[in-house]
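User: Hey, my collaborator sent me this sequence without any context and asked if I could get a structure. I don't really work with proteins. Can you help?
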Amino acid sequence: MCWPAVCEKRSMLESSTVAVTEDRPGSQSGGARTQAPATAFGSALARDVVRILQVSTMDVGGGAEKVAWELFRAYRLRGYPSWLAVGQKQSRDPDVIVIPGPRQRTAEGRTGHLAQVLTKMGRAIDEYCGFETFRYPGTWQLLKLGPQPPTIVHCHNLHHHYFDLRVLPWLSTQVPVILTLHDAWLLTGHCSHSLDCQRWKTGCGRCPDLNIYPAIRRDATHYNWQRKRRLYAKSRLRVATPSQWLMDRVQQSILGPAILEARVIPNGVDRSVFRPAPKQDVRRSLGIPADAKVLLFAANGIRTNRFKDYQAMRTAIAQVGARLPGDQVLWVALGEDAPAEQIGRLHIRFVKYQENPEAVARYYQAADIYVHAALVDTFPNTVLEALASGLPVVATDVGGIPEQIRPLRGAGCSERSATSYLPDQATGVLVPPRDSHSLAAAVELLLRDDVLRHQMGLNAAQTPRRDSI
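Assistant: No problem. I've predicted the 3D structure and written it out in structure-token form, which is a compact way to encode the shape of the chain:
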């Protein structure tokens, strides 16, 4: 298949994804999505040429998993043969296919006992030595898993114990392979984000933190980095990232020379689900006091997530509660099941992870401000969901977050963002990372000024339409 044809088909695929998230003409912000009508030619092309296989850690989850799931469903909705190959399957969707492990049946039958033993021993050796293990033989069956062979393979997160990275050189000669990076694992010797470390640019080794996910027992990061570089050198890859921040890192990394084409394609948000709603009605249904000042943060593993800054948020919001003695301040922490906490007039309510997007959306609709303190973040879906729900966002100025928010002029102390906006355009406030005082000041500013907060919420609700989220 010639590369120009691949480019044409990929452009069509991306256009179809945008069409799925378009608003109906005349709808309010957060209106339902509608499909653009498929032409006869487009339908024939879908049947005869374009068959898309997404590859992801699992089918149900947050972040990267959600993006892969939505793309898989969007392509299928528009008539393309579409499948999702995963390491762990949790849904009952018949087009979600589990990549065979050593104890599962493959297209050739049951893996032999000796192969199982050797694979298990190899993984144990890899783990002991600090090697990133790629011993997942089912990966080599990717093109045979579906009812038809795919013509495009679109890979998302490839870590988390299910994918053999050594398949990339061969696979990329069989079909066009697109890698969408949701973190930096493909660029490093083990970690999904390097935080302040820059060793990924020069070869890793002497790793300052082996416990960053995915953790390894011993420092084999230089070996792991070199092995990835060798694999990429033999591969032909198309790379997408949701943010320019991550793409800049890709271009400086070992993955850069293997790239045939690179594009920044921001994540989308389902505006038929994440949209403004009557706040008091939603609060009543959730048991949230009507007159409370409600702050929201959503993440997997609220208190233990290495890449989020729970302690800074907790300290900052406690300061806000102390400065607003006449108000009840409620912080909803969505994504962890834990006992409620009370700090002075601040009440912290933990809410366990919600699989249903409609249930998640109700918490955005009930809140006044979305607060997102992170040490690093690629392009968080939660910020997009908050904006689409009509919430101003107070967030740390890290990673790809500045690409999502139009920061308020004169608020916060961000040094990275050169552009700021007046209240009739701003959608949030950016503050430096690890700075609880600046975070508290930004939250307090918006809670005290109802007019400003309301205007920024209106601006935020328009962001998906104006900035093509």
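In plain terms: The CA atoms of residues 292 and 328 lie 5 Å apart. You can pass these tokens on to your collaborator as they are.
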